[in-house]
Amino acid sequence: MPYIPYCWQQKGEQILLKSGQSKRINVLGIINSKNDLFAELFEESIDSRLLIKSLDKFSKGLKKKTVIVMDQSPIHTSDAVINRLEKWQEKN
Q1: CA 8/CA 6 separation, integer angstroms
Q2: pTM score, two decimals?
Q3: How far apart, in whole angstroms, are the C-alpha atoms of residue 85 and residue 16?
Q4: How far apart are CA 10 and CA 20, in angstroms?
Q5: Are 19 and 3 in contact (CB under 8 A)?
Q6: What is the pLDDT of residue 4?
Q7: By CB distance 3.0 to 4.6 Å, which of 5, 39, 50, 58 could disulfide with 29?
Q8: DSSP-H helix ranges across 1-92
Q9: Distance between CA atoms of 64 and 66, rounded to whole angstroms?
Q10: Percent helix, strand and coil across the chain, each rounded to 5?
Q11: What is the mean pLDDT of residues 46-71?
Q12: Contacts 24+ apart (CB under 8 A), 52-59
């Protein structure tokens, strides 16, 4: 059974979800001020390794200086992510 505590949709738009027994799916997403969404789905737990991989992939498409705001989740503040900041800063 799908479980969605909240989501966004356009006025008048209907969101349909197929129901069924399946593995858990985790979503890592980045949304900008224009509501453009970069998202990746994972059947495994999202850890610092997957966060870094996704941010590396996301950063390849950037054409201007970009700021990403994250909360204080342990995967966001891990040594692996902190050590990667300098490389991302070089890419703006």
Answers
A1: 7
A2: 0.69
A3: 38
A4: 26
A5: no
A6: 64
A7: 39
A8: 48-60, 79-90
A9: 6
A10: 25, 15, 60
A11: 91
A12: 52/80, 52/81, 52/84, 54/28, 55/84, 55/88, 58/30, 59/88, 59/91
In this prediction, residue 13 has a pLDDT band, given cuts at 50, 70 and 90, of confident
Structure tokens at 85: 């900041």
The conformation of residue 75, written as its DSSP 8-state character, comes to T
SS3 23: coil
Distant-in-sequence contacts of 43-49, Cβ < 8 A, 24+ apart = 46/75, 47/75, 48/75, 48/78, 48/80, 48/81, 49/80
Nearest-angstrom CA–CA distance, 47 and 65: 25
